[in-house]
Fold this protein.
Amino acid sequence: MSLIQPSSRSKQKSSQKSSARRTENNRIYAHPLPIIFAEPSEPSFLRKTLHFLGVSASDILNPHCQGVLDVATRSVWVLDMKDAMILWQRGFFGKGDLSRSEPSWLARQINARKLAKQGEIRVMTSEEVTAKRRAERKQFKLDRAKAMAAATAEAEAAFQQGRIVSTVYAADGTRMIPSAATWKPKDGTQPDQDPPRVEEDEEDEEEPMVNVEHLQLTLQEAFFLLWNFDCLSISNPDGDTLTLLQIWNAFQNVHIPCPTLAPMIDPPQHRRFDNPFLVNYAIYHHYRSFGWIVKSGIKFCVDYLLYKRGPIFSHAEFAIVVCPVYEDPADQDGSPFELNNASPFSWSWLSTINRVNSQVQKTLILSYVTIPARSRVSQDILSSPACFAHYTVREVVLRRFIPARMRD
């Protein structure tokens, strides 16, 4: 046990910072969806009567965001940062194309400019916090290895001289080998170097930064916002707004080889239930309808990650692997699409995926989506989103069995 205990004042200060940060996040991300049901400050007699009868008379605030379909990346770009922050802060839709999640490229550039100046306080972004923690963790391991080598050498020398020394605590009572609870990172500044001097006659003029980042929505996220809430309008690169039917056709044609990068708004030549857009949207809509925040899971070798409230509040608890299942196996033989995990996978692959997600405290879920048989369901139903009623989703939870931990 370490002899150095954090003071009550430092604990209280850390708790206050954590509480303030949590309160601020709850305020910023208070709305789970882009649309808001607002109650008037002074409701009229009619509104009070409707509320008494159990009828909601709230005002619906719809942001009506704008997006552009990009066929090359199979995504929808939201170029207006005001719309981008609305979609991110109200449901965590999309990601910044120059950021890990939240569009923060401009904030990082401003922080980098402020860092060049001495004595200015700045707020770090999530990417900068992660990079700082990784650097501190690496430095801690190096310091611990040096301390262990020094303690070992001193113990060997004392043994040869017949002395008994402690390899844990030094003479002043501090730990010879630092622990994660007592180690503190060293200041990265170099006092030997003088800060750069700025001549008095030099004008401190800075060019304004232009935000070149945009929010990138997957096809599933874009169609979910468009079809369910009508809070997103999608246009082609020329600026022409697309109708719901044109978007329905374009999203399916994205997965069909085409010599041009322009959106194909005509109906697909051969409509199929195993179109990758339809299969993935069935899974996405399934979990979104239950209140989960669904994000890409490519970092952990899975298709999706499920968050309770969002990546700002906690880590994902579940990792989803989409496993398409053909109701009629004959449909798979003549399909032009090669769906991932449609064929039986090996046990080594499954064990690898399960081990990766177990190490990061995530539960692996195999989501089997049943593709309707073409012989049972008419192809005409694929002309509208009503076809999703014929898809079914079943889950199988996998857990890595560890005999030493799960005996009880």
